[in-house]
Amino acid sequence: MSWSGFWSSRAQRAEQLRRSSQLKLSSSQRSQLLGNFEVRAALQNEQMSSLLPPVGTEVFRRFTPDSPEKNHQKHNAEEEEQKNKQDPPKAANHLEAGKTLPFIYGDTPPELLGTPLEDLDPFYQSQKTFIALCKHQIIHRFNSESACYLFSPFNRLRTAAIKILLHPFFSLFLILTILTNCVFMVFRVPVLKNAEEYVFMTIYACEVILKLLARGVCLGRFTFLRDPWNWLDVLNIIAFVVQLFVLEKLYALTTIARVLKLFAYRPDLKKTTEALIQLVKRLADVIILAAFFLSILALIGLHFFMGVLRNKCLSWSTHAETADNMTTISPLVLDNFTSSFPDGHVNFSDYIHDWKNFYYLPDYVDPLVCGNSSDSVACPTGMICLKTGRNPNYGFTNFDSFGWSLLALISIMMQDFWENLLKLTMQGAGKTSVSVFVLAFFPGCFLVLSLIVAVVAMALAEQKKAESAEAQQQEEEYNRIVKVLKKGEEVEEQASGRAELLDEQESPQKKTLTAQSQEVEHVTMEEHEDDLRPPRCAFAHNILKGDCCGCWRRLKERLHPFVTSWLFDLGIILSIILNIIFMATEHYPMMEETYNLLSNTNLVFLAIFTLELLLKLMTLGAFGYFQDRWNIFDFIVVVLGLLDVGLEGVQGLSMLRSLQLLRALRLGRWWSTLRALMRIAWSSVSLLGLVLVFVVFMFAVVSMELFQRDYQDLVCRISTDCTLPRWHMNDHFHAVLLVFRVLFGEWIETMWDCMEVSNQTVCVIFYMTVLFTGNLLVLTLFLNLLLTSFCDERLTAKVGKETITKWTKTWILARFRTLKGQTSSETEENGRKEQLALRTVTSDQQNLESCHGNQTKDSCVVSPCPADEALVKTGEQKQCEDVQEFKDPETGSKPEDCCCECCYRCCAIQDLDTSQGAGRVWFKFRTACLLIVQHRFFEAFIILVILLSIAALMFESINPQHRPILQMVLDIADQVFTYIFLMEMLLKWIALGFKKYFRSFWCWLDFIVLDVALFCLIFNSLGYSTEPLRAVRTLRALSRFKGMKMVLRWMAASVPSMCSTLLVILFVWLIFSILGVNLFAGKFAHCFNTTSGTFAPEFLVENKSMCLSLSLNSTEVHWKNIKFNFDNVGMGLLSLLIMATSTGWPDIMYSAVDSREVELQPVYESNQYMYLYFVFFIIFGCFFTSILFIKAFIDALHQYRHKVGAKHVFMTNDQLKFHGTVRKMFSKTPEKAVPRPQNQCQARLFDLVTSPIFEIVVMVLICVYVVVMMVETDDQSMKIEMVMVWIFFVIIILFYIEFILKIVALRQHYFSFGLNIMDFVILILVTLGIIIDDLLSKYFISPGFLPVLRLARICRILPLCHWARGIQKLLVSFLMSLPALLNIGLLFFLVTYTYAYVGMHIFGYMKKEAMIDDMFNFETFGNSMISMILVSTSSGWDGLLSPIMNTPPDCDLDTDCGSPMAGIAFFTSYILLYLMLVVHLFIAVVLESFSSREPEELLSDEHLQMFYNAWRKFDLDASRVIQYSQLSDFCDELQDPLKIPKPNTIRLVHMDLPLLPGDQICCVDVLKALTTQVFGESGQMDTLKARLEEKFSIHKTQVSQEPISSTLKRKQEEVAAGVIQRAFRRHHLHHLDKV
Prior knowledge:
By secondary structure, this protein is an all-alpha fold. The protein has a 3-stranded antiparallel β-sheet, with no helix packed on it. Strands 9-8-10 form a 3-stranded antiparallel β-sheet, with helices on one face. It has a two-stranded antiparallel sheet with strand order 4-7. β8 (1086-1089) and β9 form a beta hairpin. α9 packs antiparallel against α10 (231-245), α42 crosses α44 and α48 packs across α50. The radius of gyration is 40 Å and the shape is globular.
């Protein structure tokens, strides 16, 4: 199934699963099914019904000593019946152990629960097994052999053990035990001295003993150790015993085992966990591929940047003259050189390794990384750049070995603190090193991540399709069973009807009297129904229904029309919106009058909502009011508001005021998109979400067990004041926060701390486990919620409940017509027409609230009547016109009218006769212009000019006076480009006319860009600066590249349907921003010491007034607020955007956690539970809203594809042809065979180089070479380096030997294969690198990179591995998505290029602080481009925005002050565009991954041609048959993959080919058998047969097509004939002996 079909059928699958879970037979139907011969005969072919016991036999039979013998006899009888059948019996899927008992068996009798029963599955009845059922109808299967060689199934001890294990109280007891144990893991009780551990271990040991008694040890399929869940018990006991005597940290294994044991006792959690394990198995191919690509990238980083980050600025002031000479000496010589300084006997090695002699930037812990290249960081005067000391970040950030390089690549892939790595690399290796990141690291990491997401999405989709197929099969069988049962009931009813008819003829008054008596009894029961209820209960029931008295009923009748009217709902909606607006106006500092105004408005709105509550209670009654969930939610919100007012002065209850924001969620009653988001959040509280919670808890506890003591003992290594950092594992709260941080991609910094205080290997293993497992669970939960349908929500309310009014245009117009005074019938008819037209036009759009695919009967589908078809066509025509607006106008061979008809009517002189005179000349001139415009050379010339004009932007600078000649050339080029574009526009005006020209969106875009360019020329001549406006030049490229036009066309079409979703996301963020203002407004300010760069201690400065008093005596101290805060809603939204997308979130979070009250000095983690605010924002504001956004994005994409009818919306038609090329490239098409040489020596070499063994040897050689490259390190000794050099030379020589052997054997055919050409080129480059090492290093690229290219040859090993087919599919899917990725990537590059140019001219003079420094700034176009590349990964952009936010006195207004509003608009717009394009990139890969799994032709035309050519050699008459004796030679003649080399007799016999008269074999039968053997079973054989017949000229043959035998039967006949002949010979010889 394609992605489109799968996405459309989400609602069907959800509805099908819901129906299948409710399947149940009544007791009468079940008894009829079990006891009726006719019903069982009609259902004998059904899957479940065929497994029922014979009629008259009990379903559930106790397992007795005679049961095994009966089952054995039954099995022997069944084996006799199965002898002639080819398929052996299989176990029933619906009767597997651990599954719920199917509905056809009914409920188990209570006395048989936990009792050994005979197996219900006939397959296991002969396997010496029995079953036992628990209260939840779960099947448990046991071996009938004696457990532990002692206890038979009838032993009382074993029977009791089984009954205890299956009892629900036992499972509940163990669950409570594990939960209690988890509580003790978190809260240690020193008084107990770990005594509780021995209690828990005793319970777990007793559990293991019971399981051993019930199941046995390991001899049997269903014994204790055969169940992987029981391995947790073994691990629990062994780890507990070992940690007592060997290593205390092994207690972490017991924690893992005990938490995971919790899943084993909940069948639903167990099923979810097993599904996750199966998902991990599906990831095997992509994990191998990811490891391969990451290893390649790690080797690239190793060879480019090995030892670069150790470069440091060393003080050399005492020997300045020597310093100039020492820069040319290699660092290796300096390391080995030891001498003494003249002025002090100091050892040189100790001097260069002393950290006091390094240069440090202010507020930096590590010394400055420098380089000796022109574009790297230069050392200050008096210092020299040497490679010495350790690497940054405790020595863990480097590329000095393969392991560290791989760790750096993982951090780049996860986008965690990678900007620091990029900055350090550029400081040491130069700014050109960013090209390695952009061209190698980023694409490789994107490839790995996108394929992982695609594989997980496909695996989940297949699981959901499998569940849906199983549910559909059960439902179909249920319907067939019910149909058969109803048919039997109808027969019985007809028979009883005849009997009743006879009775009526005998006594005609009998039926009348019976009916009258039943009617009288029914009326009497209704009259006395209320009398049977107690008086107090009846009175309470009337009060709850609102029917206590007549006055109340009359009041209720009068209020009901008002409360249920649309005006009442509209008033409530407006009140909620106004309340949100007033809450959003809160800010800091705020005047007292404003505060009182907001407080009073809050009371007013509280009174309105309380009045609404009372009116609804009076109208609907308490019973009717609380039937609606939204009313319950409204009630809770009003009660919380009243509590807030009543407890306003109570200390510690200020959070109640923040809960008033729940009022905003009441809009979900009317806002369907917000309601969908709330459903997503509620659906996350599922089994998968529960598994994620327990896994987070487990990792938190394990981290405490492993690292808690290390953090306490060695904290001084990571903290100067020996205090614990904010992220540690010393207590459970911080451990959970740390694991949560790792799950959402922030892990590398905390892992460095862990590696510094604890064992490095243990820390890496722990963090990688948490990272992989946690992110896999998060990704699975994300995709599961994404693929879940929420179409089952009720769109209309029931009678008697509150009407849910749709907020649509039709609804509003109809109500306003009512206010105008139109009649009800007219209003209803007009409203019906408009609503019908609206629905029919948007029915194809399938919004979030409607179900996709085949609609069920509950779906809101409106079928248009014939009178409304015109409206439908009009709407569709308008949509098509909207699409046509984006098409190119340069079509047609003749010029059209220049102007529209109204222009000709107003000015008749424009209407010229084109058949004669001046009109004819004008027409020819326009025709010539049209030919010029449509010529491909003209289009190529314009594209060239556009590219040149765009490229010219990179040479501009913010200081043009420094390069006057270049600036003059750029100004002249700007004028030339403008005039060329003006000429193009004039030509198109003449050729196309104004009417056609301005009908195209792209022409309008060119027109506006040209207008801006002319405007710039005019203002530049007047002396004004218009450089930023030149950035609009890049927009011209959008109209010239079809791929980018496809992406833009889709984005423009998706904007309307995405507006509602974006508005909901903004609404949710607004709620969090208002909550942040309520919690943190005015609390982020602090007393700051500018000299030390630290906060003033709280014991010295308590509040703002004390800080201001200190500032009077010292200018170094002042009261300062951080730039990103929650002082108002706007700044709060910006802070939340930084929290969600940038790495600057720690400053905001730490300020919130340290905050106390307004104008009080913050205290370290004084309010640490404020961490939860940011945790909730990440979950609800980022995670759930991302799901909603991508869901709406895919919905819009599905609608657009359905509307335009395109298979792929990101590719052009020419690019779609690339799909076929890729499939053909990776398909097993037969290659043209290389002729074998006639020379004997060459022939032997040919056999050698073409043999698989030779390829395997070459692959082993390449793998050895890869391992050698991985072993290389920066600090290796000279001896190891020489050994590696010699190994390198030996391998090069072996590669030359391979090349010589192949070139001699294959001759000129060597260069016919792409891999051979690649080997030859790489071999030449590597050789040149050895010869001219210095020349390549200085002017070209480092020769150390050239050996990495040899790794490309390792792809040859893939066809030799059994798992290579899955990897090949992944590579094919990614290659097929390359055109779409190229289109989106070009658009992404164009956006980045444009923003870099604009940023250079707007922010080029910013003050250097935060992230703006020598590496990241906007002073030149190159630096601006590097800065935008950094922002493109949503990393560190807050550091670039921070200096722009400076205002006096923090900056100089005339030099380095920026515009905060311009900076916010610049970065936020770029971030939003970036997120949109990244979603496009991932969706493109996922869609192509799905499309690559679609079924395709088994055999290509090349395969069929090869088969036909080989067949033609044996079938000269083209009769489509050959002799059976020729089959062995024919199969050996074929090429791969259909070839079966000799000896092939046994394989051909087992193919069981049909034999025609005359011992002939048909070609179709042979091809079908060969295809089935290579590709497996397929349903495309009819198509394959038709394609094969096209290859033959004769479609009919004289030979009969009816087979008379088969190859397998012929072989059996031959064997039987041989047996008979041998027996006859023996009998004949024996007879002769007697004679």
